[in-house]
């Protein structure tokens, strides 16, 4: 079946974004001012169409390769609803914790499409993965020993990948490179033979089915990804020779960047996937390993552009220096990326999309008690108190990295499609904030009691 690629343009807005006659931003057929009135602010809004389009673009790009699967990186954004949506699209899931695994299980996600990652998996995590039949992406030799022991104890077979360090460094923020020689993730290629020999001694309880490497996140160029595939192809050939078994799967990682601002020029998903599929076919052929199943592991590029955050603008502060701060009702607790990675975002006034006025030196300040809590520096919007501000590109690593800093309840999240908006994560309440608090008895006593 031919897959339609709907959205080849690289946009920082969700695919369904339009502006209605009142000049309001509309996502998934829902007027953002109505969403804010109904669900409150801050509000995370996820556009279902953008997620579907992203998955279809990956599928279309990979279609020249005989056998491939998208493994969505759940760390970008994972809820029960997202598991259901991605399952319905035939996508697999990369989980990195008991919590992510639990979410997938509760959603009824098929275990044979689950892959457990992580550089320090607990015995409980490994045991659950073996029990449900999820694949385990083994990070180090000690973990391999645990997998062997736990599989033996459960009298089950653990199907594993080895994560290797390819020694490749894409251009991105230092905190999110993962395939460089000194990485804390994965097995150095020099130690692969030793690990394979141990794995062979653990057969048949441990079955080595594949190899994996992930080089980093928000990378905008294709070359490092292709280099990674070449490294994996060679490593797979030596693995095949040493184990005498066919390598069934090669997981080339995720990391494709998205457009956060007009200065970002990422590759289109389709182009990335097509280049990856073609290079994989050629390198695997050259390495003599046939056509193992090709896995790609995108997180951000599936959900990032789908998400926007709606904030209500509060006070405008004008300083003698000419600096202007328009404070919004959220900030680093719902989006820690600007303060963590100096990430740049693009904002608009969702209730006055047709206004072309700009306000020089106006920054959007968060409401949290740190000077670094600035959501968009010099957004230069002509926004004022009461306006509804939308930030684009907040679908990935916002909800999943959010906190309760300053004892703030986390916002709600709605999924929008065809004019319907459904809550997929409820807004936290003040009661939620104190639910796990306990006061020792002695502190409850008055001094003279
Ligand atoms: N696979 C592995 C093994 C990963 O570690 C990651 C992301 C992915 C796949 C998905 O990468 P993506 O396609 O989303 O780039 N918090 C940071 C990003 C951390 C990425 C961690 N690993 C941020 O907000 O930029």
What does this structure look like?
The protein is α/β, with parallel strands linked by helices and 449 residues long. The chain has two domains: 1-47 and 306-449, Lyase, Ornithine Decarboxylase, Chain A, domain 1; 117-298, Alanine racemase (TIM Barrel, Alpha-Beta Barrel), CATH 3.20.20. It is 30% helix and 22% strand. It has helices at residues 32-39, 48-62, 80-88, 98-106, 123-132, 141-154, 192-201, 223-243, 269-287, 300-303, 337-341, 430-434, 441-444, and strands at 18-19, 25-27, 30-31, 43-47, 68-73, 92-95, 114-116, 135-138, 158-165, 187-188, 206-212, 249-251, 293-296, 307-318, 324-328, 347-349, 362-365, 374-376, 388-392, 412-417, 420-425. The strands form three sheets. Strands 4, 14, 15, 16, 17, 18, 19, 20 and 21 form a nine-stranded mixed β-sheet that branches. It has an eight-stranded parallel β-barrel with strand order 5-6-7-8-9-11-12-13, surrounded by eight helices. Strands 1-2-3 form a three-stranded antiparallel β-sheet. The longest helix is centred in the middle third of the chain and has 21 residues, at 223-243. Ligand LLP binds next to helix 10 and helix 11.
Which structural class matches the secondary elements? alpha/beta
Distance between the termini: 78 Å
Query: Could you say which small molecules are bound to this protein?
Result: ligand LLP
Helix coverage percent: 25-40%
Radius of gyration: 24 Å
Please summarize the sheet with the most strands: 9 strands, mixed
**Arithmetic mean pLDDT:** 94
CATH domain class of the largest domain: Mainly Beta
